[in-house]
Amino acid sequence: MKIVCIGGGHGLAQVLSAIKPLCSHLTAIVATTDNGGSTGRIREEQNCIALGDIRRCCVQLAGEGTQAQAMYEHRFTHGDMAGHCLGNLTLLGLIQQTQSPTEAIAAFNHLLGNKETVLPMSDLPTDLVAELNNGEKIFGECAIDALNELPSTVYLSKAVPPATGTIEAILDADLIIIGPGSIITSVMPAFLITEITEAINKTSACRVFIENTAQESSVMQHTKIAGIDWLQKKLGTKVYDLSISPSAIIEILQQGEKCEETGKHLHNINELKNVFSELLKSSFNTEKHA
Predict the structure, then answer these.
(1) 10-residue block means of pLDDT along the chain (290 residues)?
(2) S-S: 166 plus which of 73, 126, 132, 162, CB 3.0-4.6 Å?
């Protein structure tokens, strides 16, 4: 199966880690509007896309506990470099050499020995902007997450084209996984690029949305409806076919624990990413016997 994962934050990296052993054709499309931490400082100084979630995805694909993970996740603690992550700086250097974030990410993946494809949602920098009911505009992910009320509208500060390869990957996919992660700051950004949302609507792939297992601590905690329903209302279109709820994830974990007691379960079911592994295995078995 050709699988495309869309999102950002820690959730996307975990999903990629879970799917990698089960899939030979895997593509990630990563949100690039983060403006906090090391990523935010680099963006402000270099006028580039957000690099943190891209780094996290690439390093996670290289494998947990590896030397590469320890090296590229290292954060400096002193001087002007304090807080910066080596992986972010490596990606920035590659971007300056190639003049293309997409090519730079491919080069970084090659350094890590990854065969999977990681794409930014766009090669051009842009930011999230939220508009409140009173007309006030809030700029940037960090400020939006800190809001005490849901915005009436969320849009990109500058319209940007999708990165090369994103549309082709979506249209050619067998399965598309969206989330988990913060609805506004991890899931929504890619869908604010018109061509990506159009491709999501045109694709024949099964589109699966992974709900968060815990309530968001962001502004989304103020919604009275499911996050995905709020997102679709704002986008004005349906972006998923199936939704995997927290209760379904808990049930899968419980089933895994029962299997583990009998020695039939080989995975560490305490980690969320292994829930996705079990779900994908079921999908593959169904496909195989269909």
Answers:
(1) 92 87 92 95 96 96 83 91 93 97 97 96 98 96 93 97 98 94 94 98 94 76 81 94 77 51 35 59 46
(2) 162
